[in-house]
Amino acid sequence: MNKIIIAIDGYSATGKSTLAKGLSKKLNYIYIDSGAMYRSIALYALKNNLTHPHINRPTLIQSLKTLDIQFVFNPATYSSETLLNGENIEKDIRTPLVSDVVSKISSIKEIRQFLVEKQKEYGKNRGIVMDGRDIGTNVFPDAELKVFVITDMDIRVKRRLDELHSKGIYVTEEEVKKNLEERDDMDIHRKENPLVQAKDAIVIDTTDLDKEQQLEYALKLIDDLKLLKDH
Ligand code: DC
Question: For 50, which of 3, 45, 108, 158 could close a Cys bridge (C-beta 3.0–4.6 Å)?
Answer without folding.
Answer: 45
